Amino acid sequence: MRKGLLTVLSLLLVLSVFLAGCNKKDSNAGYSNGGKGTKVELWTFNALHGKYYESMAKMWNEENPDDPISIKVNTYPYEDLHNKLLVALQSGKGAPDISDIEISKFGNFLKGEPQILPLDDVVDPERANIVPSRLDIYSKDGVIYGLPFHVGAGVIYYNKEILDKAGVNPDDIKTWDDYKKAGKVVLEKTGVPMTTLDVSDQWSFWSQVAQLEGKDDLLTVDKEPNLTDPDIVNVLKYEQDLVKEGIAIPAPGNYHHSEEYYGFMNKGGAASVWMPMWYMGRFTDYMPDLKGKIVIKPAPAWKEGDPRSSGMGGTGTVVTNQSEHPDLAKKFLAYAKLSKEGNIQIWKQLGFDPVRTDVWDSPELKETNKFTEYFGPNIFDTLLEVKDEIEGVNIGEKTPDVSNAIKTTVLFRTLVDMEDPEKVLKETQEQLK
Amino acid sequence: MDDQVQAKKKRKNNLLYSQKAAPYFFVLPFILSFVLFFAYPVVTTFIMSFQEVLPGKTSFIGLANYQELWNPTFLKAIRNSSVYTFFTLLILIPLPLVLAVFLNSKLMFAKNVFRSATFVPALTSVVVAGIIFRLIFGGQEEALLNSMLAPFGIEPRAWLNNASTSMFVLVVLATWKWMGINILYFLAGLQNIPKELYESAEVDGASTWRKFFHITMPLLKPISIYVFTISIYGGFSMFAESYMLYGSNRSPNNIGLTIVGYLYQKGIEQNNLGFGSAVGITLLVITLIITLIQLKFFGMFKKEEQ
Question: Is this prediction's ipTM beyond 0.90?
Answer without folding.
Answer: no
